[in-house]
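Translate structure to sequence.
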């Protein structure tokens, strides 16, 4: 079973926990990930012909370091 909570969708699976003292505990799983909600907007104001630098923080799930650049 693969479950990616960042990707909207549903997946079904089975989880079984076992203990030598308490026995087995089987569970049927129905997992649902919903689309992410809107994030806080980032506003940038600059006069024509000028440069404006803004730092934005967000979570990246890349397994390696990644640099992001946005130019408008």
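Result:
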């Amino acid at each position: 079973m693969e479950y990616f909570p960042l990707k909207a969708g549903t997946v079904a699976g089975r989880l079984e926990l076992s203990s030598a003292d308490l026995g087995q505990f089987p569970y049927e799983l129905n997992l649902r990930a919903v689309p992410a909600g809107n994030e806080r907007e980032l506003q940038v104001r600059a006069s024509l012909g000028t440069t404006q630098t803004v730092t934005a923080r967000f979570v990246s799930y890349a397994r390696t370091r990644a640099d992001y650049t946005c130019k408008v």
